[in-house]
Specification:
The structure is a homotrimer.
Chain A: H1 17-33, E1 48-53, H2 58-70, E2 74-79, H3 91-100, E3 105-110, H4 115-122, E4 127-132, H5 138-152, E5 159-163, H6 170-181, E6 185-189, E7 205-207, H7 210-214, E8 219-222, H8 228-231, H9 238-245, H10 249-252, E9 260-262, H11 275-278, H12 285-303
Parallel strand pairs in A: 1-2, 1-3, 3-4, 5-6, 5-8, 6-7, 8-9
């Protein structure tokens, strides 16, 4: 068995609304830990968390590493390109070896979709998907939902637009699954070439005009544009993309007064968002980063055997 | 003075049978630590262990890193190719610098034979050889011996075959020294081009036919084949090698019922071992990986000043 | 506000003589910690220190990492070339992200002068400059001053020569600012092409002959020569440079009997210093390395909120 109930976090499709609510609730308590003078609780002392990454991703890696350390777990970094993959060993062989060393959790990032699932099937419990290809990035979607709930008090009933390259975005895919489950009205917006043709089956609306979502949305979530999409003929030009789907101060005037602007980062300033919008009062981009640590603490905590938050686990001072 | 008595682990030739027995016995106690809920003892709190590697070797590096962390030591990774060797500094200069920072133990992996010895001579105590060129890999041989003893109850008197590229294998070399010392009957098996001509002086037998060892061996230890050996003219073809020296389910029928199959990893599946044999019931390959952490905990513990295991050092919960 | 008073260490020009004395005094107490059996105090438990490096620099990185660990802080390494800078994100964006994760201190090394200042202006307190371009390397100068005071009992009134490529040396620049402030008589010595034309305004003397400083100096501080300076036409030849500005046993006879030889490392043996001088009795090069950890412990400790050393912070055994 794999999936959330079995001790893995692979895809938000495996989680119920209640599972998501438990994670968000637990994360709320852990967020406070990172604001303490001594930012550490002993909850996962003596546990080992390995970051097994085949793609460079500093921000996701350090967010998980900090989350694990603030729970007093030991951490290990394994970058696959700099390691024995050079000798032709497969990711699966490497993961089996890591498991044999009595590691408690493997956080996996891989450029190929499905690799975390393969590992979860072959290994015992303890795989977290930190992003696989264009498929899923469940912890990003959870931290996005946490941030929405924190800023707007709820998710249900909100109008949420996801803008940009939906086709290649694991962030979009996971957010769609999560947000729909939580009762939001999700609209996708982007160039026709970058929206999957049958995506409406997931329960979302689609539009090809930013204006359609600007006025009605409570949340505007922009995706990072990979500039190589132009070379791959998905885009006529970056400038054209920005004109149609980028957000600047002028366009923002059309939006709801309390709209929040989200982005998984790193922002291409001047492409998806103008600098003044990215750094402006509506932007919650750095809150997303802050909340990422809390949400990942909650996920590690819940997956490593605690079915609910034990208040004692918020006490104490780290390794004491 | 360098060598085991002086606080270094460079080559199994420096150790007596009693030294090896002490390590294996100590490792047995530490193995249990890695199965606890809190996999940590405070034995090496406040000690610093540096992994100084000039070759990528994820599995050996993380095995040592986990061993050190489970003893509550602090760990530091220094990869020489990614570091100031770029500026022309020698490994020796770097090691002297690390020593000057009051580090307690330097775990060294280098592609040139003899580098750990050079460091041990120039520095104070505290060098562990994690593999140098084709010369020695003592911790691998110790974990192999631990695994043999664990599975078969003893080493003395066993028939043990080492199969493959003996010539270039530090794993073979260290196992020969250790196993002979422990009283095993060791037979080497491989292509004539890959067995050193005068190796029988070490007290081993040599054969060029796998069948000779298949029937009589209690342990079949296969070595990883470097595919570049074909280009270097040591081999006519990989396929030929596998036909003559690879093990598959068919050939395994000839072996003793309780034979164990070992491999230092990573396995070239389909070359040294067929996948069903590598993953089959006779294979103890992942046990080797598990035991590697326990054996390295024992080595770190014994080298850092404890002459025997103090039972108090198995108590407690990590950093407390 | 940025600078030492605000919680950053960017440049020794921001520090008063009293600030420097406080750091050196605090470092003295922390030096003793690294000689203990358990080299750890709990002073910064639950704090997080990130090493954000855009240049490979093993020795500075591990010195800071050890300093942080011996104060029981958690550490994270972020190498910018191996990370999301690949995706075009700026160092500033990365630093803002790291700050958003409630990190307490960012140690920054960057090949461009001014980057630590930019980060300090954009972020809250908590930036340490670990070397920026040719501009400043304040922690190196502080460990150099600590070593001088340790070996010679004082800094004030000493004759100190800095020899080599002053023009491109952040080490020289920071030492000039620190040593002048502490009352030393500083003379710069090197090829005319490698000494900035108006440097005497800083309060130093300049000479182009090594003999001028050999006889009178209490401290001879040699700088590492970048061999590419020859290609850049700053030097006629390396051999010529060594003849004029290198130190060997023969030339050393001209020096004061108690002179100390310093070098920030790694030494180009045979260029700046002959091997027998680099490893000889006058050399304090490895003392500099040892003291680097103590000085960085003091800096982390003082910047993270302790205005003076609390003696309780030297007690205890690490994470307990």
């Amino acid at each position: 068995m794999i999936g959330w109930k079995a001790g893995d976090l692979l895809d938000l499709r495996d989680l119920t609304k209640e599972d998501i609510e438990l994670i968000l609730e637990t994360a709320k308590s852990f967020k406070e830990v990172s604001t303490r003078d001594i930012k550490k609780v002993p909850a996962l002392r003596g546990k080992t968390v390995v970051m097994l990454f085949s793609e460079p991703s500093t921000r996701t890696r350090i967010s998980f590493e900090l989350a694990a350390k603030r729970l007093s777990a030991d951490t290990l970094n394994v970058t696959v390109s700099a390691s024995s993959l050079l000798k032709g060993e497969s990711m699966l062989d490497m993961a089996k070896n890591i498991e044999a060393m009595n590691v408690d959790m493997i956080v996996v990032r891989h450029k190929s979709a499905g690799v975390p699932q393969i590992l979860a099937e072959a290994l015992g419990p303890g795989i977290i998907n930190a992003g696989d290809g264009c498929r899923a990035h469940p912890t990003q979607a959870l931290l996005d939902m946490f941030t929405i709930k924190e800023k707007l008090g709820k998710i249900e009933g909100l109008n949420i637009a996801i803008v940009g390259d939906i086709l290649h975005s694991r962030v979009a895919r996971s957010n769609i699954h999560g947000l729909i489950k939580m009762g939001a009205n999700v609209t996708l917006c982007g160039p026709t070439t970058l929206i999957p043709p049958d995506i409406e089956q997931e329960g979302v609306k689609v539009t090809y005009k930013l204006e359609d979502v600007l006025k009605i949305s409570d949340v505007l979530m922009f995706l990072r544009l990979q500039k190589e999409r132009q070379e791959e003929k998905y885009l006529s030009s970056i400038r054209e993309y920005t004109k149609l789907f980028g957000l600047n101060k002028e366009k923002l005037k059309m939006a709801k007064k309390n709209v929040i602007i989200m982005h998984p980062g790193p922002v291409n300033r001047g492409i998806e968002l103008s600098a003044d919008v990215a750094d402006g009062p509506q932007s919650v981009i750095l809150d997303q980063v802050t909340n990422g640590v809390a949400v990942r603490m909650a996920i590690l905590y819940l997956l490593l055997g605690k079915k609910e938050l034990v208040s004692d686990d918020l006490k104490g001072q780290g390794d004491s």
